[in-house]
């Protein structure tokens, strides 16, 4: 019987919109070892896209900065952490409400955290105004449904 071990990767990238696709593909490729379904892969890619986009747009206002992504796999569970060092969120609970957005031009739907919650099994958001934001998401693959 194969012994399960934790495996992880960490990367740092510029907070640019064009890097969002790279981030989602890296995380998706990393979890392929868990033999996910296409739906599970798409869930992960969507959640990662939302978290990275939030960092680029809301954390840094589209002006660049640094995003760190750490991903680990243990047994059949993946954890991904996406961290920025941007302006942070004053009221995380309010920001996580569906349709809430700070976008005065109404170009954003305010559904980013909602999508992350729906597509992942666990979501934790840690932030402080002026102190950046860390999003931690978990997903278990291959769960047997009854």
Kindly describe this structure.
This protein has 146 residues and is of the alpha+beta class. It has a single domain, classed as 2-Layer Sandwich (Heat Shock Protein 90), CATH 3.30.565.10. The chain is built from 4 helices and 5 strands; from the N terminus they run E-H-H-E-E-H-H-E-E. The protein has helices spanning 20-30, 38-59, 92-95, 112-119, and strands spanning 7-14, 66-74, 77-84, 122-127, 133-140. Strands 1-2-3-5-4 form a 5-stranded antiparallel β-sheet, covered by helices on one side. A hairpin with a 2-residue loop joins strand 2 and strand 3. Helix 1 packs antiparallel against helix 2 (38-59) and helix 2 packs antiparallel against helix 4. The longest helix is centred in the N-terminal third of the chain and has 22 residues, at 38-59. The chain is globular. The relative contact order is 0.20. The model has no long low-confidence stretch (mean pLDDT 86). This is Anti-sigma F factor. Keywords: ATP-binding, Kinase, Nucleotide-binding, Serine/threonine-protein kinase, Sporulation, Transferase. Pfam families: HATPase_c_2. It comes from Eshraghiella crossota DSM 2876. Its EC number is 2.7.11.1.
